[in-house]
Amino acid sequence: MLLYVTLGSNDISRARGFYDAVLPSLGYRRQRESDEEIGYAADGDTRCRFWVVVPYDQRRATIGNGSMVALQAETRADVDAFHAAALAHGGTDEGKPGLRSFHANFYAAYVRDPDGNKLSAVCERPE
Questions:
Q1: Would you put residue 44 in left (φ > 0), alpha (ψ -120 to 50) or beta?
Q2: How far is CA 125 from CA 32, 49, 74, 76, 98, in A?
Q3: Beta-strand (E) ranges in the chain?
Q4: Can you tell me the distance from the alpha carbon of 11 to that of 21, in angstroms, rounded to the nearest whole number?
Q5: How would you label 67-92 residue by residue, b for 16+ Cβ within 10 Å and e otherwise?
Q6: From the centroid of its chain, how far is CA 34?
């Protein structure tokens, strides 16, 4: 359904450091970058699916109340690694890794990046 997702940043260099450290735990790596944006994709993907950008209108990036990007994790260990990497690189905890009530195998962690954008990593496989 989704082609790609963008999140705004007020400090693209700081965002690069955060996402370069966090997204590899889910199989995504920085594939594109400029002074205004950085793009991440899985190895072998034909396009970047996750972008962090300086807002096009040059106004300050802000977060949305109720907005969140959930990223698929292959294993629960990947969710744990995502959460640990986020906290180690300037992110803040919004929900430690664990099972959630959405269904029996919904294992997730929630963080905010240094700009305040909310992210989740989710594994729905039984383990």
A1: left
A2: 31, 22, 8, 8, 13
A3: 5-8, 28-33, 37-42, 50-53, 69-72, 92-99, 107-112, 118-123
A4: 16
A5: eeeebebeebebbbbbbbbbeebbbe
A6: 19
Bridge-based pairing state of the strands 37-42 and 50-53: antiparallel
Distances in Å between the Cα of 123 and the Cα atoms of 44, 109, 114 are: 21, 9, 23
Q: What's the rounded Cα separation, in Å, for the pair 108 and 71?
A: 10
For the stretch 110-122, pLDDT in tens is 999 999 999 999 9
**What is the rounded CA–CA span in Å between residue 9 and residue 73?**
24
58-92 per-position pLDDT tens digit: 999 999 889 999 999 999 999 999 999 999 999 99
DSSP code of residue 83: H
